[in-house]
Design brief:
globular; Beta-lactamase; 11-stranded mixed sheet
């Protein structure tokens, strides 16, 4: 479906053409990081509050966790997001794939100087170019594969056979530059790392990391999408909680040591997070500070893993701090700037005097965070007239047959009829109504987003003839704002995403009232 692929092409694969891999054995019980007050770790609660208040103005922050000296000193989730529901990491997943490569190197199964073609002798082109022959694992890690363009590995490519494996398609992509000479952010290169680790270890990266990383850190049954060949995608698709991100950052801050055990060799941590590739010169951009092995270098001598639309694992060695953030933002630099402007100067070398009032104010703010809901009237005169009325749509690429609003004194429900059946989504009025069953019967096509196991909804009459609904699949960075304008016997329906990998606004659909409710 066109809009589906354009708006959410990467995430769509997580739940459709690619299968989700999950750990099949029980993981260790989640081991929480220790908690402390900000002042005990040299940070003023008032300064953290200033950061939170500024972040609250950004649409849309989902969560953050601040760790100083190994202790969580502040944490918050914007409702409907919460501490326990996993969130998609997008390209933050790359840093975990790099970790798998480092562990395989440490176990003697792999060298970063080995040629990529060595691992795929049956999938190489008949006459590989000299540049392809010289491409090494190290070039995959530092995004210097020699490609001029990023292969659309996750979508159908008319230039390749549908039966080709993803690795074969990668190896068939032209390599015009000598590997090691040009930086190109390249998600398929991360997939190749995952495929190589699977080749040398005999297991997908998800399973390889389970006992070596996820269980020691106390992750609860992490999931990672897989290619049709059963390879963890590597470049994206890992899901986890905010504290999982913070633990990963803390592990790297501690040079791979966790509770006295060296999970990752310290030498690999140093190498992976050091400057391996120069990629720009702007002193104001955190995307121009260079690249390591699937980690970005950042300003202020920091490094990070990050993912599309604002998933961050930011490590600040000089301050002995980690900042974990999930969000759905268009301007990722704006979020980074808040960290530098508000949190960085707040980190002092010694503990501060207790400040009960400021700490209480911070906690009150953190427990009351919520995403912006539609603002308007709870009801209008038109509500009773249109309640239960079906509006039928002509054939469309979203497979929507009809929609209706079921409005009662204390509840309101969006009802969608598709070829798959009827879906009912409760809508909160000024609050968020969570639906643990998520999208059903094709409602995701109505929105042109992938199906999700959980969603939340809030709505209001934003004018006398317009009902506005915000739908949040709160394991993702996405939300959709729906505008239902009732114009006589017509329903004018508009939908817009907060973020997308393409256009965010979808074409308007016009429905006509059926003869009976």
């Amino acid at each position: 479906m066109r809009n589906f692929l354009i708006a959410c092409s990467f995430l769509a694969l997580s739940y459709s053409s690619l299968g989700a891999q999950q750990s099949t054995e029980p993981t260790a019980k989640s081991l929480a990081l220790p908690r402390s007050t900000p002042e005990e770790q040299g940070v003023s609660s008032a300064d953290v509050l200033a950061f939170v208040e500024a972040a609250n103005e950004i649409d849309a922050m989902h969560s953050f966790m601040l760790v100083r000296h190994g202790k969580v000193i502040a944490e918050g989730w914007w409702t409907p997001y919460d501490a326990e529901t996993p969130h998609i990491f997008f390209s933050l997943s790359k840093s975990f794939t790099s970790t798998a490569v480092g562990l395989a190197v440490a176990e003697g199964k792999l060298s970063v100087d080995e040629e990529v073609l060595k691992f795929f002798p049956d999938e190489a082109p008949a006459e590989p170019s000299a540049n392809l022959k010289s491409m090494r694992v190290r070039d995959l890690l530092r995004m210097q594969t020699g490609h001029q363009s990023e292969l659309a590995l996750w979508r159908d490519d008319p230039a390749t056979k549908s039966s080709d494996t993803l690795t074969k398609r990668f190896l068939a992509h032209p390599v015009p530059f000598k590997p090691g000479t040009h930086f190109l952010y390249n998600s398929p290169a991360t997939y190749m790392q995952s495929a190589i680790v699977q080749k040398v270890t005999g297991m997908p990266v998800l399973e390889y990391l389970r006992s070596r990383l996820f269980e020691p850190l106390g992750y609860d049954n992490p999931s990672w999408i897989a290619s049709p060949q059963g390879v963890s995608v590597g470049a994206f698709g890992l899901m986890g909680r905010t504290e999982d991100i913070a633990k990963f950052g803390q592990l790297y801050l501690q040079k791979g040591n966790w509770n006295g055990k060296q999970l990752i060799p310290a030498a690999w941590v140093t190498e992976a997070t050091s400057l391996q590739t120069s990629n720009g010169s702007s002193p104001k951009s955190d995307w121009d500070q260079g690249y390591g092995y699937q980690f970005w270098r950042s300003r202020h001598n920091s490094f990070r893993g990050d993912g599309a639309f604002g998933q961050y694992c930011l490590v600040l060695p000089d301050q002995d701090a980690v900042v974990a953030i999930t969000s759905g933002v268009r301007d990722m630099q704006r979020v980074m700037n808040l960290v530098w402007d508000k949190l960085l100067p707040a980190m002092k070398p010694k503990a501060l005097a207790a400040d009960a009032e400021s700490h209480r104010n911070l906690q009150t703010k953190l427990t009351g965070l919520t995403m912006r809901a539609p603002v308007g009237k709870p009801t209008v005169a038109l509500a009773e007239e249109i309640s239960g009325q079906w509006f039928e749509f002509p054939e469309n690429d979203r497979s929507i047959q009809a929609i209706s609003l079921d409005i009662k004194p204390n509840s309101q429900t969006l009802v969608v009829r598709t070829a798959g059946g009827e879906s009912r989504t409760p809508i909160g009025a000024g609050t968020w109504s969570k639906n643990p069953q998520g999208f059903a019967n094709g409602l995701e096509k109505f929105l042109s987003v992938p199906a999700q196991p959980v969603i939340a909804a809030s709505g209001a009459w934003t004018s006398d003839d317009v009902f506005t609904v915000k739908l949040v699949p709160y394991q993702t960075p996405f939300y959709s704002t729906l505008s239902l304008r009732f114009d006589g016997d017509r329903l004018l329906f508009d939908s817009e995403h907060n973020v997308a990998f393409g256009p965010t606004k979808l074409p308007q659909l016009i429905g006509k009232a059926s003869t009976a409710k």
